[in-house]
Design brief:
The protein is an alpha+beta fold. It has six helices and 18 strands. It starts with 12 loop residues before the first strand and ends with a strand.
Length: 229
């Protein structure tokens, strides 16, 4: 029998704002229903009882600005603009008071979602993977180091599509703030340098079509633009 050769896949990475350094991506964690208004629009009762965590493959990152491929097997691709946390350090059982010390920086990202597949999975009590985890499901702009932007705890987070406003919220309205998300995740997983965390999306999610152009903004992080190819 001839053994097949396996080529090493390219390591996923993102740009770091203000230089030529790259941020190596380890894992992508996400929290769902983290703004009360968005939880309501999805038919859920917002509560802080049990956070909803899920993951995307590390190689689902795609750098913004730039084109993003419309994925297969859906007719209802949705945008979810989110603050993305990039970790420089990790660990287990991280205290909330020390959690922000693990943060390398912040970026603007889209938690792209095949809403029809997610809705079908939800209806059957099945996992969300086919709705959330696919190629190019995580478009993300450059990572802004904490040294440059601090820790954004309030300020507008918005998304417009083809010049029309779609999503709007304020970082101050996160049900689970960044430090609490890190502390909670570190009880479930060993966090590591290179991990990214999508922190949830504000109200106004909706469909994207091939040819659409979007601009996502977060106060303090500027804006990133992209298009659906
Ligand atoms: Mn999301």
């Amino acid at each position: 029998m001839t053994r097949l050769a396996v080529a090493a896949p390219p390591a996923p990475e993102l740009a770091i704002a203000g230089g030529s350094e790259r941020f190596p991506v380890h894992r992508i964690y996400c929290i769902g229903r983290n703004y009360a208004e968005h939880a309501r629009e999805m038919g859920a009762v917002p509560d802080k009882g049990t956070p909803v965590f899920f993951l995307k493959p590390a190689d689902s990152v795609v750098a913004l600005p730039g084109p993003v491929a419309y994925p297969p097997a859906t007719t209802d691709l949705h945008h979810e603009v989110e603050l993305v946390v990039a970790l420089a350090r990790g660990g287990r059982d991280i205290a909330q008071a020390e959690a922000l010390d693990c943060v390398y920086g912040y970026a603007i990202g889209l938690d792209l979602t095949r809403r029809d597949l997610q809705a079908a999975a939800k209806a059957k009590g099945l996992p969300w993977d086919t709705g959330k985890s696919f190629e190019q499901a995580a478009p993300i702009g450059p990572i802004h180091p904490v040294a440059a932007v601090g820790h954004p705890g309030s300020g507008a987070i918005t998304l417009e599509v083809n010049g029309q406003p779609r999503q709007h919220g304020d970082l101050a309205d996160l049900l689970f703030p960044v430090a609490e998300i890190i502390a909670l995740l570190s009880r479930l997983f060993t966090l590591a340098p290179g991990d990214l965390i999508f922190t949830g999306t504000p109200a106004g999610v909706g469909p994207l079509q091939p040819g659409d152009r979007f601009v996502a903004r977060i106060d303090g992080l500027g804006e990133v633009a992209g298009s659906i190819a």
